[in-house]
Known about the structure:
Elements: H1 2-24, H2 31-62, H3 66-88, H4 98-111, H5 116-140, H6 156-166, H7 171-184, H8 192-219, H9 242-262, H10 271-278, H11 280-293, H12 303-328, H13 332-338
Helix pairs in contact: 1-2, 1-9, 1-10, 1-11, 1-12, 2-4, 2-7, 2-9, 3-4, 4-7, 5-7, 5-9, 7-9, 8-9, 10-12
Amino acid sequence: MSERFHGIDVARAIAIFAMFAAHVGPTDRYGTLGRTFHFLDGLAPILFVVVAGMGASMLALARNDPAAVRYRLLWTAAVLAVLGFSTQALDHHVAVILQHFSMLFVVAALAIGMSSRQLAVAGLVLTVLGPMIYLAGLLLYPEIFARSVTRISDAPGAIIAGLLINGIYPALTYVGIFLVGMWLGRFPLGDRTVIVSMIRVGALVAVVSWVLVVAVETLWFLPQGQPDWRWIVVMRPHSQMPMWFIATGGLAVALIGACLAIFRSRRWWSFPLVAAGQMSLTLYVLHLLAFTWFPGRLVSFYLNEATAITLLFCFVAAGLAMLWVHFLKVGPLEYLVRLPWSGHRFRSASES
């Protein structure tokens, strides 16, 4: 069974490295480097969410005890909420994703008993319907759906609204692609047929979506300022629109499939990525601390400088992860997620 797990770890590492890039450099520049930062900015959160959904299902498959799995998912949600709100209170420029992730793990606890068919239908429908509801809300009630960072200092109602509908990563728009990830996690991911299908179908969805959006934008002027119902075909990162989730979700699935195909077992040359993936939560929090400790020094609007800083982040993170995993096996925050079960034999697919 280990074949599948290293590929998931690598996909998780790619997501965290993409998030480093999005937080370090400019995402609105042209040229090869500029478009790369723009691309990584859109890929990072959706890849994270798909992998997280797969991990939730693999956790359930590792132990045939739905009640125990639900408790574990809810504990994970609580840890992520505390970490998210705590790190959002620090002095940095990043909109933290962890407190929003916590809502998705609450959803996972509720959805863990659904059949694979139900997960597939719910995930595919909500991937389209959630963003469409968000767009309708933005058009009808712009003052409510104006997105902002969700902080613990907000009023209780504002916190709930931020996590569910109008935060930077609202559950309303992300829950569909998360459920798709849960559905994918039900498949035997070590099976070559499944892996090839993920690559082919994911790539096809991404390419068809991109061609469709380009064709529509060429034939049909899309407004760039005030929200408009034509935004439904916008594919801009963090737009919360259906085509962004569909196209980037397809790409994320194909990328995960490629990781599963290439990294079927851990080799010395893949260990940096595998280790970084296994410590993704710790590395995410550490990069927020780095922005806080070195204000302004780790961000650049110059593409070459931003690339150098991003690579520095990746190399340092991979090196630290290799040392920690080699000697201590489990990252400190990953251990916190497992803490209530640390004395029990409860190893899941996402933890191997």
